[in-house]
Amino acid sequence: MAKKKTPENHGKLITKKELADIKRLVKEGTPSVEIAKKVGRTLGSLRKIAFDNTISLRVKKAAKKTAKKAAKKTAKKAK
């Protein structure tokens, strides 16, 4: 059985810019899986970072509504 490869950012501290990006994406209502991909971290590390910095990854109702509106606009433009 092959040994799993560790991520290249394993053990590296998070930068202020990355933390600001995470906060911005959470505020926009981006799902945590997508935030993790955009920041280049695993979902587990994103959750740990959020916990340590008291950031809620839960999508707020207002953010859900704006995300739905944006999806409708892009769907209309595609037609």
Structural features, described:
- The chain has helices at residues 16-28, 32-39, 43-52, 61-78.
- The protein contains four helices and no strands.
- The longest helix is centred in the C-terminal third of the chain and has 18 residues, at 61-78.
- It is mostly helical and 79 residues long.
- The protein starts with 15 loop residues before the first helix and ends with a helix.
- It has one domain (16-78).
Largest sheet properties = none
Strand content: under 5%
End-to-end C-alpha gap: 49 Å
How many β-strand stretches?
Answer: 0
Order of helices and strands: HHHH
Query: How many independent structural domains?
Result: 1
Please give the count of helices.
4
Overall helicity: 55-70%
SSE class: mainly alpha
* Shape descriptor: globular
**What is the alpha-carbon Rg in Å?**
15 Å
Low-confidence stretches: none
Tell me which oligomeric state these chains represent. single chain
Average pLDDT level: 84
What secondary-structure arrangement, pairings included, does this model have?
Blueprint: H1 16-28, H2 32-39, H3 43-52, H4 61-78
